[in-house]
């Protein structure tokens, strides 16, 4: 009975380590591909409004000056 429990414990520890590795990989991919704190207008591939294309690359402060 004790041998059976020890084998189950070892198996669960291996599984836990494997799942930790997968979780760390998923978290890294999420951080790389989907930053929740970046506004949609600044994300790569986002649609730009027509007004953002005006001004030849100048910021709003530079245009008003």
Shape category: rod-shaped
Q: What is the count of DSSP helices, taking H or I runs of 4+ residues?
A: 3
Q: Between the first and last Cα atoms, what is the distance in angstroms?
A: 82 Å
Which strand-content bin applies to the residues?
under 5%
Largest sheet: none
Number of strands: 0
Could you explain how this protein is built, in words?
The structure is a single chain. The chain is mostly helical and 65 residues long. 63% of the residues lie in helices and 0% in strands. The protein contains 3 helices and no strands. The longest helix has 32 residues, at 2-33.
Name the descriptors.
3 helices, rod-shaped, mainly alpha
Describe the structure concisely.
With about 60 residues, the protein is mainly alpha-helical. The chain is built from three helices and no strands.
